[in-house]
Amino acid sequence: MRIATYNVNGINSRLPVLLRWLEETKPDVVCLQELKAPQEKIPEAAIAAAGYKAIWHGQKSWNGVAILSRSAPIEEIRRALPGDDEDTHSRYIEANVGGIIIGGLYLPNGNPAPGPKFDYKLAWFQRLQQHAKTLLALGSPVVLTGDYNVMPTEKDVYKPERWVDDALFRPETRAAFKTLVDQGWTDAIRKLHPDETIYTFWDYFRDAYGRNAGLRIDHFLLSPEVDKRLLKAGVDKHVRGWEKSSDHAPVWIEVKD
């Protein structure tokens, strides 16, 4: 089974790129972030024509998350992260797909930091930590994947000295990610590629993609039941170079059925 995550940065404006990538790689399950479209504007027909069932949680102009499946049924569990009934941002969706609980997430950016947006990011991280602990306690196969908006270590960012005050790289953010992982999750990319320079995001400015001046902010965290089935993990970096592509590239893992 191939599971992928992709921050599409606007599903309608990037639809040709998304469909081309789906046709090229045919992942079994896909988590999408930054749909930037309200619930009724998701291109369900085009996704279905590509061979995928889908559930999504849209939001006008911002955020938005979805889960796509090529063959296995999608049994939706929730479409919001527990812990704050007043949080209306579309940032989390969870389903059972083919016997694996898939949590697709778009963690807040948090800039400028310090400030209210950074406080919201850290509070959201705390809610994620609590829910992740609950999921681990199930003893079921679980995958938490998406755009975490955090570079966990200096090897995950081009010229880290330029990012020390950014919300994605501040000590509080990196500590929150480490606390999450230390619950018992496996960072799939780093398990299989511990020392490689691997990025998942390249800004549109200053030829960042051409210079490979990127960030690794899209992650797969695996419960022990999935970790022991992990075969491969990688980034479809070339997709970032396509015309009118997102500033993120798709990230994927392969696990034994």
From TrEMBL:
Active site: Y106, D147, H248
GO molecular function annotation: DNA binding; double-stranded DNA 3'-5' DNA exonuclease activity; endonuclease activity; metal ion binding
CDD domains registered for this protein in UniProt: ExoIII-like_AP-endo (cd09086)
Site (Interaction with DNA substrate): H248
InterPro entries: AP_endonuc_1, AP_endonuclease_F1_BS, AP_endonuclease_F1_CS, Endo/exonu/phosph_ase_sf, Endo/exonuclease/phosphatase, ExoIII-like
Pfam family, one: Exo_endo_phos
Domain of life: Bacteria
All copies of domain Endonuclease/exonuclease/phosphatase, residue ranges: 4-248
Binding residue positions for Mg(2+): N7, E34, D147, N149, D247, H248
Alphabetized UniProt keyword annotations: Hydrolase, Magnesium, Manganese, Metal-binding
Cofactor remark from the record: Probably binds two magnesium or manganese ions per subunit.
Cofactor(s) needed by this chain: Mn(2+); Mg(2+)
Transmembrane segments: none
Keyword match Plastid: no
Gene3D superfamilies: Endonuclease/exonuclease/phosphatase
Annotated site residues (Important for catalytic activity) in this chain: D218
GO terms for biological process, alphabetical: DNA repair
Transition state stabilizer (site feature) positions: N149
Family, as annotated: Belongs to the DNA repair enzymes AP/ExoA family.
UniProt-recorded name of the protein: Exodeoxyribonuclease III
Organism: Chitinophaga parva
The organism's taxonomic lineage, starting at the top: Bacteria, Pseudomonadati, Bacteroidota, Chitinophagia, Chitinophagales
Gene: xth
